[in-house]
Design goal:
The complex is a heterodimer of chains A (414) and B (408). With 414 residues, chain A is α+β, with helices and mostly antiparallel strands. Chain A contains 13 helices and 12 strands. The longest helix of chain B is centred in the first third of the chain and has 41 residues. Chain B starts with a helix and ends with a helix. Classes of the chains: A alpha+beta (414), B alpha+beta (408).
């Protein structure tokens, strides 16, 4: 208590200098807090979008497709689909299972062709997966076992089609022939992701199976796991075991992290985050070292006196570290509060890049253009730890300087 | 001169502190240099790729074509060779080439995928674009043959090899789907992801047969002697050939350029956080320095130094500190940047993903003289601005009081 009292008095003796030190730490901690929340928010929405619209937590696919980067050819799909779906559904921890077919097709419009991608699924199974019903801007979802179709809003615009219109298409079927399909437009969807809204349409699985000659087949079966993002590896093992014991050795279960480039592509972001943290830390630390060093040198005599009165070197070091700790604590609290408030505020309103990106239609980024920072308790804890570490780490050198001189020399010091 | 000597001596008096303060600023400067160079490199490489594989210097398009997401052959320039022969002999023009672009499907066994089929005149096209130089396997196509060139990623993903016979289906100008078998003659890897992933090139004669057209083009591409001639040239073409929309590559890359600007702003915000931190450090040091030397300042004033001279001593101290730090930062930042501009930053992790830059292999930062100059100025201004408060303080106050009580 006595030590803290002494340290607090020393800190308050030089209010201006203390304010400078505080500002340096506050800026670093606030920046760090906000950055962490922002990056978390971005990465989370990026992953969530990918899992929801494409990967699921775990995807079952033909083993031959695992290494492919393009859609599976229709003749190499998963056979005995109903059986596979039943096995997946009865696997422990799996909450939703939905088979899908993705097929490329040239859609004709008045002045040319549009390379479009058809997504065939069982609409009633997608409520908790693709969740497209929340993004419909006109009409409704197609219903199971009908010839209904839902179009991305930009695609509908391009085709000049609206709810109630008919759409005819020719797609290559699983034998390599051309399969005709005639669909009734019942809905228009706007997912907010340009490349999907420009190119994708959605039809019931049964209609696509008929059109593409894929009876009881699909290209992929998407599974959702009760335990969320990180439960995918465990679920993959269980799915693999139950598929293998039923004799489906040519169907592989792939967790979302191993599908495509999405998971890997954020690794550089983590590296940049680390680098920025390091630089912020160093910058703040130099200021802190500087101020505390000054204050120590100015108090050389005083420290000599303390030593002469029986303070050990350790006690003096402890005193200076306590001073730094006090400043660091206050600064960290202010920094965390500022950073968290900004992040929490923006988590409500979102940071909207849509305006900045307007007129940049040709850049099809695979995520939504509104970023919601996602601050959590760990964000605050990490930043607080970071702030205190800067303060204490930076005070170490000045503390050593303070006890370098013998008490007598220190007392004589001018 | 006297002021300069005083200022530099003062900095030398407390070397450790000077170094510490300078370190903070130097770090900030080196990050600034690296970030700017990264963006400049990204821009330069992107511009090169745009011009070399996609846009040339000036491009003529049929009216309305640019507004369509997937334009068909209704948007076309007929009698393209008339226009080309009228343009190619003008002063300043290096080469002119027609291209006929069609969206279609590519089939090989049971594999299928979308492609953009580009009909080109191999001789003229290779004078405007570098696409044909980028063939890494097999041979470039020549006029009149039944052959196709496809992008590297497209070939790899579909398992297509030189010599394979593939089927390409496009919609012809009258509106019917028109399939055509072609031999893969070469595979190209030019480092522009759009080209390497989605494009295929056929001789113009084959494209005409697929499109059921003759002497039509969906674009006329012009390469000039110098990039700076783009705008006046575009203007003269626009007034002369009004049936065609003429664009410079900069107009065509407007989307990219506005993103690039937005990126710069985002980086500058981040860098300004570092700048604030560095400024706090400098302000702090200068404050200490004034505080310590109160008596000394009083003495200087008593000797007849004017207020403004005292002030300039401290401002100059800040400036010298900024200069030193900027130099150090320039050395660190340039070394790091130059190393990476030779090694390159691999973009392989982003393969297949649209990252908003037309680059696929590696990114090379470009260290421009402007960046160095800018960061030097920035460093010095930053340091002087941060010393302003302390310098002003030092120049105020009563001489007697400063001498007697050490207080300003």
């Amino acid at each position: 208590m006595n030590m803290i009292h002494l340290a607090a008095r020393n800190v308050l003796r030089q209010p201006k200098r203390t304010v400078y030190t505080t500002i340096a730490i506050v800026v670093a901690v606030a920046a760090m807090t906000f950055m962490d929340a922002y990056i978390r928010g971005f990465i989370e929405s990026y992953f969530e979008t990918f899992i929801r619209l494409d990967a699921g937590h775990v995807k079952l696919m033909p083993s031959t497709s695992v290494e492919r980067s393009r859609p599976t050819p229709l003749d190499q799909g998963i056979q005995h689909l109903n059986e596979v779906v039943r096995i997946a559904e009865s696997t422990e921890g799996i909450t939703d299972v939905s088979p899908r077919i993705r097929f490329p097709v040239l859609l004709e419009k008045e002045t040319g062709v549009i390379p479009a991608m058809g997504i065939a699924f069982i609409p009633s199974r997608e409520e908790n997966l693709m969740n497209l019903q929340s993004f419909i801007i006109e009409g409704r979802m197609p219903t199971d076992s009908t010839d209904e179709i839902m179009l991305g809003n930009r695609l509908a615009e391009e085709l000049g089609l609206g709810v109630g219109d008919e759409l005819f298409m020719l797609a290559s079927d699983s034998y390599g022939g051309l399969g005709p399909g005639l669909y009734q437009v019942v809905g228009i969807v706007n997912t907010g992701i340009g490349m999907l809204d420009r190119r994708q349409f959605y039809v019931p699985l049964s209609a696509a199976q008929f059109q593409l000659a894929m009876d009881d087949m699909a290209l992929e079966v998407v599974c959702k796991v009760a335990s969320g993002l990180n439960g995918s590896f465990e679920a993959k093992e269980r799915l693999r075991n139950s598929l293998a014991s039923a004799g489906f050795t040519n169907v592989s279960a792939v967790p979302w992290q191993e599908q495509g480039f999405v998971y890997q592509s954020v690794q550089p972001v983590n590296f940049v985050r680390g680098l920025l943290m390091f630089l912020l830390g160093i910058l703040a630390a130099t200021t802190v070292i500087n101020t505390i060093l000054m204050s120590v040198i100015e108090r050389t005599r005083e420290i000599g006196a303390l030593r002469a009165m029986g303070f050990t070197r350790g006690t003096v070091i402890k005193l200076i570290l306590t001073e730094a700790f006090l400043i660091g604590l206050v600064a960290t609290i202010i920094g965390v509060v500022i950073g968290m408030s900004v992040a929490l505020f923006l988590a409500q309103t979102g940071i909207d890049y849509t305006k900045m990106a307007s007129g940049m239609d040709n850049f099809d980024l695979p995520f939504r253009l509104v970023i919601y920072p996602d601050p959590n308790v760990m964000t605050a804890v990490k930043s607080a730890f970071f702030g205190l570490l800067i303060a204490l780490g930076a005070a170490w050198y000045p503390a050593r300087v303070a006890v370098r001189l013998q008490p007598v020399e220190a007392l004589r010091h001018n | 001169m006297m002021v300069l000597r005083l200022a530099s001596r003062n900095l030398m008096r407390n070397k450790k502190r000077t170094i510490l303060t300078a370190t903070a600023l130097a770090l900030g400067i080196s990050v600034l240099i690296f970030a700017m160079s990264l963006l400049d490199g990204m821009d330069l490489q992107s511009f090169e790729n745009f011009i070399a594989y996609d846009m040339a210097h000036v491009k003529g398009l049929p009216p309305g074509r640019q507004d369509e997401d997937f334009p068909g052959l209704d948007f076309r320039i007929d009698n393209a060779s008339d226009f080309i022969s009228q343009i190619e002999n003008r002063p300043g023009v290096l080469a002119v080439a027609p291209r006929l672009e069609m969206n279609g499907m590519l089939y090989l066994r049971t594999e299928e995928t979308f492609i953009r089929v580009m009909g080109i005149d191999p001789v003229k096209d290779s004078q405007v674009f570098k696409t044909l130089d980028a063939v890494v396997d097999g041979e470039p196509i020549t006029n009149g043959e039944d052959a196709i060139l496809i992008g590297f990623y497209l070939a790899r993903d579909l398992g297509i090899e030189v010599g394979d016979i593939i089927t390409v289906m496009v919609r012809s100008a009258p509106g019917a789907l028109n399939p055509r078998q072609l031999t893969v003659k070469g595979i190209m890897a030019c480092g522009h992801p759009d080209v390497d992933q989605f494009e295929a090139y056929v001789p113009l004669s084959v494209a005409y047969q697929m499109a059921l057209l003759y002497d039509s083009a969906t674009e006329i591409d012009i390469l000039l002697e110098h990039e700076s001639m783009c705008e006046p040239f575009r203007d003269s073409l626009a007034s002369e050939f009004q049936s065609i929309e003429w664009h410079t590559w900069r107009e065509l890359a407007a989307d990219f350029l506005s993103i690039s600007k937005a990126k710069r702003v985002a980086w500058l915000i981040m860098i300004s956080i570092f700048a604030i931190m560095a400024a706090v450090g400098i302000a702090n040091t200068m404050m200490m320095s004034v505080h310590e030397r109160t008596r000394e300042i009083g003495t200087l004033r008593a000797f007849g130094f004017s207020k403004s001279t005292v002030r300039s001593i401290f401002l100059l101290e800040g400036a010298i500190l900024g200069l030193l730090a900027s130099f150090a930062g320039m050395i660190i930042g340039s070394a790091f940047t130059l190393y990476l501009s030779v090694e390159g930053i691999s973009l392989k992790a982003y393969e297949g993903m649209d990252i908003g830059v037309p680059l696929s292999d590696a990114l090379y930062p470009a260290l421009l003289p402007n960046t160095l100059l800018l960061s030097l100025l920035f460093g010095i201004l930053m340091a002087v601005a941060a010393s302003w408060g302390s310098a002003t303080r030092a120049s105020k106050g009563e001489i007697i009081k400063a001498l007697r009580e050490g207080m300003l």
